[in-house]
Amino acid sequence: MVIWGGVSTVRENTGGRYDPVTDTWLPTSTSGAPAARDTHQAVWSGAVMVVWGGFSGAGLDTGGRYDPVADTWAPTSTTGVATARYGHTAVWTGSVMIPWGGRSGNGGAYLNTGGRYDPSANTWLPTSTGAAPRGRQQHTAVWTGSVMIVWGGWNGVYEATGGRYDPVADAWTATGTTDAPTGRRYHTAIWTGTRMIVWGGDAGGAGVNNGGRYSPLMDTWSPTTTTGAAQARTGHTAVWTGSIMIVWGGQAGSSGPGVSGGGRYDPASDTWLATSLAGEPSSRRWHTAVWAGSVMVVWGGLDLLQGSEDTTGGRYNPVTNTWAPVSTTGALFARARHSAVWTGSEMIVWSGGFNVPYDNRGGRYDPAANTWSVTTTAGAPVPRRQHTAIWTGSEMIVWGGDAGSSPVDTGGRYDPGTDSSQSTSLADAPTARTLHTAVLADDQMLVWGGWSWAYENTGGATSW
Q1: At residue 245, does pLDDT exceed 90?
Q2: pLDDT in tens, 419-435
Q3: Which of 69, 186, 197, 292 is 20–30 Å from 103 (CA)?
Q4: CATH number where 272 lies
Q5: Structure pTM?
Q6: Other CB atoms within 10 Å distance of the CB of residue 94
Q7: How many domains is the chain built from?
Q8: Is residue 339 part of a domain?
């Protein structure tokens, strides 16, 4: 797991690599590391972590390539580099990183420029501005396998435009506007393999329940029908089953009431089917949802009717459109802002809290048997919320979070096979933080950024 960057009391250019097998931390070298920053972008190339851009009082056009095996940094070239920026998007194509858009400085211009960075050759090529979309931030970008599609966002107005960028030809083609969704930001965009589906978001200060299906091959938009569509909402969850998108839970707006029901959207037939109301869990946000191969498992969260944590959940089968309750026998106490991972056969929930005291108990839920079993507290980390958790294939690793009065730099490894926990080492651990991110990249967990009463630009990595 590689952690780097962020803000502690100052912006950082330090980090750490955590190895859960040996339970040891090693610092990331600062020799040749990029300058401290936040709101940058980072991609994993398969061999190195590439960090670029961001903010440190002004937009930055520098970065670095970090090799976690050799613990070495190499700077990203500044020859031909893209304009300094922050708040941009970046995609990895398999050979180059493409940053695009964002703002040029502290409240600076919205950019419609970008770059193609090859970490192997350490070279930059600009992205063409011919036919490029207008500059923006809070847009989305997806990689289709051959082109990057950017759409929507904010540049003083809600954008309803976008573009397809071919990095081989260095050419932009505008996404069509016929039947495109209305301009918006904070929307979602997924790639199905053939189409990008945009749905929901903030369109003029209010949530929407419409969207569009974009085919880059045909350059055509097809609106997502609003007939039977899920109610506009925020704070909900959405899972992709491989053929349909399931939306559930949340609230009607940023301060609106909770919503009941959800929707199943089939992009092939452009049809919505409501999720059954019979037996569904109470309306909530900050819950967790996992796709278990045949059912969506929802659990916990903040009950929007009671204003308190919920200890209930549900298993939703989209084929039969039925809910079955998640057993409460042996289940955890009510909680929100907890973590949940899917092992392939069980959902493991751990810690969390909101109004109730934090607790370091956890639970393992088997949706096939509809049974809970409690995770051991022996050797478990101190209770916390807003931490991160990943599944390695054999262990759940939790790290960081808010332990009630301050962020922590502790964590733990839980083995459900033996129902045993052991703490992560404190030696050379990164700065304590909460609200950070953690992803599994091949055989490493990469943790970065977050909040420790200041914004972090440090991180670390571990392999097992």
Answers
A1: no
A2: 898 888 888 788 899 88
A3: 197
A4: 2.120.10.80
A5: 0.53
A6: 8
A7: 1
A8: yes
